[in-house]
Amino acid sequence: MKKKEGSKEKDDGKGSRETRCLIEGHPCLVAFVYESDNNVVSQRLVEKVQLPTSIHPNQARIKFSTGKCVKEVLCDIAPMNSCHLLLRWA
């Protein structure tokens, strides 16, 4: 992945982008992936920040912010090391 000059965003040129976000006041790495089918949050993040899960125990509603933009998404919970939050990018 190459880093864009003057920005903290990274773009690999293949339809994905990484940037930083805040989840419950904690700095996290979020990856936006063009061809992803699901939104996924790291199991480690859910446990560490004690995020509440939804009715389905393997899902959590995540509220995150990137600068002035605040979003809330429903995510599947899965073990992963590449980032804290993986979001589909339409």
Shape category: globular
**SSE sequence, one letter per element:** EEEEEHEEE
The CATH H-level superfamily is Acid Proteases
Could you please say which CATH topology applies here?
Cathepsin D, subunit A, domain 1
Low-pLDDT residue spans: 1-7
| Biggest sheet character | 6 strands, mixed, barrel
Percentage of residues in helical conformation? under 10%
Strand percent estimate? over 45%
- CA gyration radius, whole angstroms: 13 Å
Tell me the name of the CATH class.
Mainly Beta
> Count of helical segments?
1
| CATH level-two architecture | Beta Barrel
Mean of pLDDT:
82
Structural class by sheet pairing and helices: mainly beta
Explain this structure.
Helices cover 8% and strands 50% of the residues. It is mostly beta strands. It has a single domain, classed as Acid Proteases (Cathepsin D, subunit A, domain 1, Beta Barrel). The chain has a 6-stranded mixed beta barrel. A hairpin with a 2-residue loop joins strand 6 and strand 7.
Explain the layout of strands and helices.
Blueprint: E1 2-3, E2 10-11, E3 16-23, E4 26-33, E5 40-42, H1 43-49, E6 59-66, E7 69-78, E8 85-88
Parallel strand pairs: 4-8, 5-7
Antiparallel strand pairs: 1-2, 2-3, 3-4, 3-6, 5-8, 6-7
Short description:
With 90 residues, the protein is mainly β.
Features:
single chain; 90 residues; mainly beta; Cathepsin D, subunit A, domain 1; 1 helix; 8% helix; 50% strand
